[in-house]
Design goal:
Length: 548
């Protein structure tokens, strides 16, 4: 005769076993679907980086282009992420940074799909979310967006764990969060801030497993932060960060404009308008102009009075980007689903999202769509993470909304990707070779097309770039190595031989004024190499006695 306890045990084990089988089935489906989706997009199109930031970090990681040698100190990302990137083996010559990015996107897509399936959203909704959300990040990867999508997957996992209390899912979610933090800590924090109303925190932390998992994540973040800080503790890095922190208000925010409105400040510190514009446009090679003490003194005397209206205008301008071509599909889809599942928590999350965007814009960084994409993604994905079996009309409405959004997004991206491919093939035919360091000013050169996602080791051997940008004064840069020798930019600029230059006409005019004001001679520009995408000119401004 079977005991009651045995019967009880049997009935308890059966649903657990069935749940495990369902979880394995969902995991396999999510992994296979996401992997096939990423591979298919990469076979049809040629993914390119959304911005030149990823190109720069790939150069740093693998020691080519603007980097004199490889380094895990990627500046924008945690040094632990740099170590991981450099440790990855090349596959068919493909650089580790590209492999790490595509793997991260695939993991994020698989995790998002899996957690949606476990939430009861269904295969159709989960598949549509995958196609809708991840098509652009795969075709045009950008590290901030990648980090934000991983953070969204983490929060989705934590939300699901409030229902099934699965330790494995908890650990997986925290691993996704740690990866997001390593890639871009600021975006990780911003996504969490918007998600605060969306998680039932009391219920989540009533679980011991949740406490242990989140505590482990916090410990890993603290450890990675300490390692990152220690890696930049050398004197040359301290000098770099001192300049970097003081130049940021001029290059990234509105300090340059505010200083230019104060002729008395310029006169007091012996600066011209052109000097200030040079600092605001990445020209840090003259130590007199980029002196941190000088920049701090200028910042301390800028009055914020009278700029409130401008700040509000910039903030509203940032919010208006929600209707731009990159965000509009996400915005409309999110709003429709919000009304399908009207909820005070989701309304509050939308308010926090727009408040964060307004604050970023008011601070002077309005046009940073890459920062906003994960925020709207969060609002769409979390809204879909629910069982819809009880309401067929809501399920149907969500499917229709996602389908329309996915189709509209795909049509838009197909045109963008096709146009990008045409320029890509043109760039590949006009290969950039620079045996000596060529001065490239800011975004004057189409880095994303000459060093795309599928850049291989043989494509980067013959490029040496003296870049004017964030990494100019970093110890690993070609610029720093040149400055440590007799081949520094200002020395080359004042010589008869000059320096190869790729710059826009605006940057050329700034450099011409600099030569006139500081050396008493005009800039000489001689055409050297010209293609349909870029042009190299030889630039020099030797002293008047040596000039022709």
């Amino acid at each position: 005769m079977t005991s009651k306890s045995a019967i009880s045990g049997t009935t308890t084990l059966e649903p657990i076993g069935s749940r495990r089988i369902a979880a394995y089935r969902d995991l396999i489906f999510a992994v296979l679907l996401s992997t096939a989706f990423v591979i298919l997009l990469c076979l049809i199109f040629n993914p390119r980086w959304e911005t030149n930031d990823d190109v720069a970090m790939s150069m740093v990681a693998h020691g080519y282009g603007g980097a004199a040698y490889g380094s895990p100190r990627l500046i924008f990302s945690n040094v632990v992420w740099g170590i991981i990137v450099r440790a990855l083996p090349t596959i068919d010559g493909l650089l580790g940074y590209s492999i790490a990015t595509l793997l991260s996107l695939t993991i994020g897509a698989a995790a998002t799909t899996y957690f949606l399936l476990r939430s009861g959203a269904g295969a159709v909704v989960s598949t549509l979310v995958l196609v809708f959300i991840f098509m652009r990040p795969v075709l045009f990867p950008q590290f901030t967006i990648t980090a934000g999508l991983l953070a969204v997957a983490m929060l989705l996992g934590l939300r699901i764990c409030q229902r099934d209390d699965s330790p494995v899912n908890l650990v997986a979610a925290c691993c996704l969060g740690f990866l997001a933090y390593l890639i871009r800590a600021q975006e990780f924090a911003l996504v969490i801030a918007v998600a605060l109303p969306l998680l039932h925190w009391r219920k989540l932390f009533s679980s011991r497993a949740a406490w242990m998992s989140v505590s482990g994540l916090a410990i890993c973040i603290v450890a990675a932060t300490a390692i990152d800080a220690h890696s930049y503790s050398a004197p040359d890095w301290q000098a770099f960060w001192e300049t970097n922190f003081t130049r940021a208000p001029f290059t990234d925010y509105r300090a340059m404009e505010l200083v230019l409105r104060r002729p008395d400040l310029l006169q007091h510190y012996g600066l011209s308008e052109n000097d200030v514009r040079l600092v605001g446009n990445w020209f840090f090679v003259d130590p007199k102009l980029s002196d941190p003490k000088l920049l701090r003194a200028l910042l301390s005397e800028i009055s914020v009075q009278g700029t409130l209206k401008e700040a509000i205008a910039f903030g509203l301008g940032a919010i208006s980007l929600a209707a731009g071509h990159a965000l509009l599909p996400l915005t409309l889809t999110g709003i429709v689903i919000l009304f399908v599942f009207i909820n005070s928590r989701f309304l509050l999350a939308w308010v926090i999202c727009f408040a964060a965007i307004f604050a970023i814009g008011a601070a002077g960084r309005a046009d940073v769509v890459r920062v906003y994409v994960p925020l709207f993604t969060l609002l769409v994905v979390i809204s879909c993470a629910r069982s819809m079996s009880r309401s067929r009309w809501r399920h149907f409405a969500v499917i229709c909304t996602l389908l329309v959004g996915a189709i509209g997004n795909a049509l838009q991206l197909r045109e963008e990707a096709a146009a990008s491919d045409r320029i890509f093939f043109q760039a590949r035919a006009e290969r950039f070779v620079s045996a000596e360091s060529t001065l490239i000013w800011g975004a004057s050169f189409p880095f994303e097309y000459f060093f795309p996602v599928f850049t291989r080791t043989e494509n980067v051997k013959d490029s040496r770039i003296y870049g004017l940008g964030v990494f100019t004064l970093a110890p690993f840069s070609v610029a720093s190595e040149d400055e440590r020798t007799t081949r520094g930019l200002l020395a080359r600029l004042q010589s008869e031989a000059g320096v190869p230059l790729i710059a826009t006409s605006y940057y050329e005019s700034l450099l011409n004024t600099y030569c006139t004001e500081h050396y008493g001679t005009h800039l000489r520009l001689t055409a050297s190499t010209k293609t349909s995408l870029w042009e190299i000119k030889n630039a020099s401004c030797p002293p008047p006695a040596e000039a022709d």
